Model the fold of this input.
Amino acid sequence: MKLKRGRVYRSLFISDVHYLLDKKVKPHHHKELFSLLDYFHRKKIRFERIFLVGDILENWYLSSQRKLRRGKGIKRFNKLFDRLDQIAIRRAQKIYIIGNHDSFNYTLTLPPQVETYLENRGWETMEIYEDNEIVVAHGHQGQYGKIFWFINILIVKIVYSLALLSPSFFHAAEEFYRKNFNFDRNETREEMLQYYSILSNRVRQKNRLLISGHTHQFLASEDLYVINTGDWVESRTFVIQDGDIFYGYVYKKKNIFEREFKLKLRKNSTTR
Ligand SMILES: [Mn+2]
Done:
């Protein structure tokens, strides 16, 4: 399906951008993200709601707050958030869901200056968004409980402080972390089912459509009534809601993206 010029769509969902990360540390396709947002702008495609579904800013490897304090850093923030404003209708709902990489503290909150920046730009920041039809959360809740998060951050702080010495340490640190502490990739169907059942409980999905990111596994499941937005950093995927239908897309190259899935809201989901 081609997106229509001049059309206002209900929502845009995008997650796992890891913005501000250095290309030398990890390829991140941020240029391609700008190109997609510029494409929407050129085609006058706009959205009533924009959901940033977590891990939008990178905070584990670097301090987004420290970047924000510098002149050049603010420009980089504006580069992304100006573009998002260009594709939002006036009085759009702009929801910033906090993901595990957006935060590097024990209580999983945004750095205060980043939070202020977002609020000044009209973003509502929260861990879980919910209405009668959908529940949106980053998805780390399916992996970490509160205590495990605390231990995890402690370990990450130690490992990453070593990595700060040089970017080359980052790979070693990441490898080490992946092997020993990271359970965010669901490799088997059982793992996937278990993950979504924990997540569904923790975010109180009930009969609503659950939309999350985090696992980097782009999917729409009718049975689980789940959509995973995939990720930008590796797969360049995103989700658009048009009326009561959700479409999953993959960005291929400039001005070219392909539809991977489609999921319709259940009729009964409007009544809780
Ligand atoms: Mn995550």
